[in-house]
Automatic annotation (TrEMBL):
<protein>
    <submittedName>
        <fullName>Uncharacterized protein</fullName>
    </submittedName>
</protein>
Length: 127
């Protein structure tokens, strides 16, 4: 069996991390998973053009899915740390960089690494 190349490893890891957060938020329906797959296909081309960007793929896929969900369904993921002030979405930081995390700009805190929302919400749905 051939080893998986670094590009494919990065793409599979990004897919898994975003899917884990979608499952936490109980929004991992088939049409939403298709949004993840669409992003992975687009980001495969992107990282083939710029191999040094492989470390950035997880954050980019998370942002792509977040943007697609906003257009179709609404904000995701909802902030689990702000008890008042109305529901608002978390943002991915850094916008282009390694080790992406979800942040609440309203409270000014890092909430969880992309792929780890379940820990921030106690394994409970984020909505």
């Amino acid at each position: 069996m051939d080893p998986i190349n670094p590009l494919e490893q990065a793409l599979h890891a990004a897919r898994a991390r975003v899917l884990a957060d979608l499952v936490t938020g109980e929004v991992a329906e088939a049409d939403v998973v298709s949004l993840v797959e669409d992003s992975v296909v687009q980001r495969r081309w992107w990282v083939e053009q710029w191999p040094a960007g492989a470390d950035y793929v997880a954050g980019l896929v998370a942002q792509d899915v977040q943007d697609a969900l906003l257009e179709r369904y609404g904000r995701w993921p909802l902030c689990p740390v702000c008890p008042s002030g109305g529901p608002h979405a978390l943002d991915v930081e850094p916008e282009l960089g390694p080790d992406p995390y979800w942040v609440c700009h309203k409270a000014g805190v890092k909430v969880a690494a992309v792929g780890s929302l379940g820990r921030a919400t106690g394994g409970m749905p984020s909505s």
